[in-house]
């Protein structure tokens, strides 16, 4: 159980175009999904927290107009990189979470396989 | 600001050697603690987690970790590593600062020589 998929796994696009990445929880409903960015040989950097039916919460330094997040259902969140530039090339990872115990205890995350974005 | 430190960036061990990877965090409140593993070409997988209770946590594949609250640490251990343990290991801490957020350490790349 607890499988999270991402599509596409790899995408190459030209500078100035937009790219949409999908994140799906396949066998559970995730009220919250997270989007991370991972630079080569570095850790995961949280970009935004996405709650179903509401606006995403972006981390400091992440441009919300550039990285559009939509969480329209309990099993799907999308990240759109708008007007992509070469510096946006990276590995983008999503995770889907469900709460542990009562709501004040936190959550467990299950990660997607990631999407390698290359902007030329 | 909250942070997670992993002391070893690269570790090389021979098979059957014992492993300990350090993880320290900076946050004074209640935390949930995790270790994830990322095998080459694969996605992050949960090794073990701590929410409450016994501070010695056992995970999959013979790994365990101990939460020492006074030291803000959650070190990962395995008594005898195998070649198949070659991977990158991430420590992560979930904090509640008006909403839950997970912070990852920089990762430790482990290479086990056969």
Keywords:
heterodimer, A: 120 residues, mainly beta, seven-stranded mixed sheet, 0% helix, globular, B: 114 residues, six-stranded mixed sheet, four-stranded antiparallel sheet, 12 strands
What integer is the average pLDDT of chain B? 93
Question: H/E element string of chain A?
Answer: EEEEEEEEEEE
Low-confidence runs of chain A: none
Strand content of chain A: over 45%
> Count of DSSP helices of chain B?
0
What separation lies between the terminal Cα atoms of chain B?
41 Å
**3D shape of chain A:** globular
Low-pLDDT stretches of chain B are: none
What form of chain B results from the Cα inertia axes? globular
Oligomer: heterodimer
Which SSEs are present, and which pair or pack?
The complex is a heterodimer of chains A (120) and B (114).
Chain A: E1 4-7, E2 10-13, E3 19-25, E4 32-38, E5 44-51, E6 57-58, E7 67-73, E8 76-81, E9 90-99, E10 107-111, E11 115-119
Chain B: E1 3-5, E2 10-14, E3 19-21, E4 24-26, E5 32-38, E6 45-50, E7 56-58, E8 64-68, E9 73-78, E10 87-96, E11 100-104, E12 108-113
Parallel strand pairs in B: 2-12
Antiparallel strand pairs in B: 1-4, 3-9, 5-6, 5-10, 7-8, 8-9, 10-11, 10-12
Molecular structure report:
The complex is a heterodimer of chains A (120) and B (114). Chain A is mostly beta strands and 120 residues long. Chain A is 0% helix and 54% strand. Chain A has no helices and eleven strands. Chain A has strands at residues 4-7, 10-13, 19-25, 32-38, 44-51, 57-58, 67-73, 76-81, 90-99, 107-111, 115-119. In chain A, the strands form two sheets. In chain A, strands 2, 4, 5, 6, 9, 10 and 11 form a seven-stranded mixed β-sheet that branches. In chain A, strand 4 and strand 5 form a beta hairpin. The radius of gyration of chain A is 14 Å and the shape is globular. The N and C termini of chain A lie far apart (37 Å). By secondary structure, chain B is an all-beta fold. Chain B is 0% helix and 54% strand. Chain B contains no helices and twelve strands. Chain B has strands at 3-5, 10-14, 19-21, 24-26, 32-38, 45-50, 56-58, 64-68, 73-78, 87-96, 100-104, 108-113. In chain B, strands 2, 5, 6, 10, 11 and 12 form a six-stranded mixed β-sheet that branches. Chain B has a four-stranded antiparallel β-sheet with strand order 3-9-8-7, with no helix packed on it. In chain B, strands 1-4 form a two-stranded antiparallel sheet. Classes of the chains: A mainly beta (120), B mainly beta (114). At the A-B interface, strand 5 and strand 10 of A face strand 6, strand 10 and strand 11 of B.
